[in-house]
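Our platform keeps sequence and structure together, in a single record for each protein. Such a record has a labelled line for the sequence and another for the backbone structure tokens. Nothing more is needed to write down the fold, since each code stands for a local backbone conformation. For reference, a complete record is included directly beneath this paragraph:
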Amino acid sequence: MKIAAIDIGSNAARLQISTVLHVDDVVSFKKVEYVRFPLRLGHDVFNFGEITPESEVRTNKLMQVYKLLMELHEVEDYMACATSAMREAVNGHKVATRIKELTSIDIHIIDGQKEAELINNVVVQALDERQFLHIDVGGGSTELNLYLNRKKVNSKSFKIGSVRLLEGKETKGAWNKMKEWVEENVLTSQELVAVGTGGNINKIFNLVAKVSDTTTLAEIERMRNYISGYSLEDRINKLRLNADRADVIIPAADIYISVMKWAGADTIVVPDLGLKDGIIQLVYERWLKKEQKKKK
């Protein structure tokens, strides 16, 4: 069977379609389709407080495309979630309602806590018993989650994100609040490893060209400085970055670097997991419960 996840973020909207695989008693998900489109809802919301009519039209068209792709793949179940930009837009719920009327796609506008929970459900699988600080940088917010012995012991969401920084719309004092939270919660007596999720850290990690899923703070800083040495045009043409990645990658890198320095983390694990993977897992669990009820 195939299931799908739609993740509508502040910078881009993603569709992932996965096949559910069963090997003995182990369930896994194989990605068979992945589409990312730069809606840039955060540009509207962080500057004007709402989703503009033009962006609503583009979002509606994209949801129609995603719906057709799911139909072609014969997807049995899916879930669409929207995060920071749509939940902060004064017209976010109205836009989601109109899109549902036109496309039948029901967009769940989730809060930062639910967003972190969905991501954490898949990230925890990549951890061991050490102390980990999970840093998830989106377009509108950054979620920090502290783990010890594979259990989350604390978490906090901050209104600092790549698009928000690019637009100069970060919340006043947010940097200091994030620094204070890190310094108050990280256990300095134990080794700490950072875990990075989000499109920007994935791209930085790929540019570093590591063969494992771990790299260092020094390498992240080196790549950040290397990219910043290019103009926006050259980042697109010479480094072959997407236009909507080329402008936000430096603000995003600054967040990862700052948090790692505050936490005293020299290494970072980049497991290439995110909200879409958490949604996929939730959709499967929801489908499984429905099937179990049918059998009773």
